Amino acid sequence: MHKAGFVNIFGKANAGKSTLMNVLIGEKLAIVSPKVQTTRHRITGIVTTDDYQIVFSDTPGIIDPRYRLHEKMMGAVKSALEDADVAMLMMDVRDNVAENLALFDSLKLKAKCLLVINKMDVMEKEKLEEVVKQCEEWGKAPVITISALQNKGVDALLKRIVELLPESDPFYPEDTLTDKSTRFFVAEMIREKIFHLYEEEIPYHTAVVVTQYQEKTTLTKISAEIIVTRDTQKGIILGDKGSGIRKLGTMAREDIEKFIGQKVFLELFVKVRGKWRDNDLYLKEYGY
Ligand code: GDP
Ligand code: K
Ligand code: MG
């Protein structure tokens, strides 16, 4: 009997959804940062064994939309809510339990659910047990504690997921890792470095588009545009005598080389496009 299904991760910002997704698929596909709203798309990662195929989806953290961009992000959540066979409802162990449970209730999920309490590594045992008890009283999903960062409890979680998977043939050929393109992940890796290197509004006002992707025999030549909303932000991205963008370029290039397994020549350009986050044409052009 072969099993297959869609297993989608939901939760508030910074619960550790993208970190968990990467651990589950054993590959760094989803970008991670300590800042909220890092993930903007639904990102698929596929795990195939002889017995099952799981199509995992990482989703943006659930927020109240303030820009068209946010609406698009919540659209990605909605599509994942609709096709989930199994929903992993994820929360940071330190976060307010009642608030998270209310959020999970509001999703009105028909899928089978697992309540995943993440970051158990940051809490002592007695306090953790209290949180687990509070979650179990909710009664709507089995409660599982993990540390995605330290890969603790993830095997047990995977076992529970497989138990809940429906009987089905695989959806994708067995060697498929994701449904997104390499260009998409290249843009994401650049965006991740922006989240790590720049503070305040900069990461939230930024989009990245890959404009050139040329595979040659010994190296891949990539050009990308970094889109910001103001001239001052462009100046900050570039940094003193270009030192900012050089650092960004080096860090991103190293990650891209690891990802595609080839030397990369990376060129970055910064463009100003006021209000791109509220402009449907720009949003489309930038992949949202
Ligand atoms: P997302 O917004 O839900 O996708 O969360 P991320 O995966 O981007 O993680 C947010 C932050 O939490 C990052 O700084 C992660 O390194 C951190 N994080 C994720 N999982 C764990 C964990 O199990 N323990 C600890 N201590 N930190 C974690
Ligand atoms: K994050
Ligand atoms: Mg994320």
UniProtKB/TrEMBL annotation:
| Primary gene name | era
Q: InterPro entries annotated for this entry? A: G_ERA_dom, GTP-bd, GTPase_Era-like, KH_dom-like_a/b, KH_dom_type_2, KH_sf_prok-type, P-loop_NTPase, Small_GTP-bd
UniProt lineage: Bacteria, Pseudomonadati, Bacteroidota, Chitinophagia, Chitinophagales
> Protein name, please?
GTPase Era
A GO CC annotation given for this chain:
cytosol
Native source species: Chitinophaga sancti
Spell out the residue ranges making up region: G1: 11-18
Q: Does the keyword Mitochondrion apply?
A: no
> Which GO MF term does the entry hold, naming one?
GTPase activity
Q: Where is the signal peptide?
A: none
- Where along this sequence does the record place binding of GTP? 11-18, 58-62, 118-121
Q: Where is this region: G3?
A: 58-61
The Era-type G domain, residue ranges: 3-167
